[in-house]
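Write out this protein's structure.
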Amino acid sequence: MPLPPRRSRQPLPSAMTTTRTAADHRLRKHADYQRVYRDSRRQSARQMSWFCAPRIDSELNPAARIGLTVPKAIGNAVIRNRIKRRMRAAIGRHIATLTRPVDVVLHPRRSSAEVEFVQLEQDVATIFLRIQKDFKDAKPSRPQAQ
């Protein structure tokens, strides 16, 4: 039985290109993670610790970006992936509250694998509201010459 033809990626209609996707809110590059660690200090919530810094390129793209780091010390791959899935779901529900141009790195704790999703979601919402308040008039930092 032949396989159905693969669908090629079609460009989005112009009306859809103005909306933000999850990819727009992802912190991707190692250098960006390092800048966030360097330009901020660790803060804590119940189920995670977090770092936050103003975006450098906020004029080009004013959206907030979120990065997740789940170390191997938390558990095996199944547990780490479960934590990341739950965190992404909680972030997706509350990303609209984060309107400042900031980069955020979240470090979930081991307990975030077992805690009720409502509690995890509440922690993410609290963190995002706190970032909104803390970065009300923040100016982005410029990269240092090396």
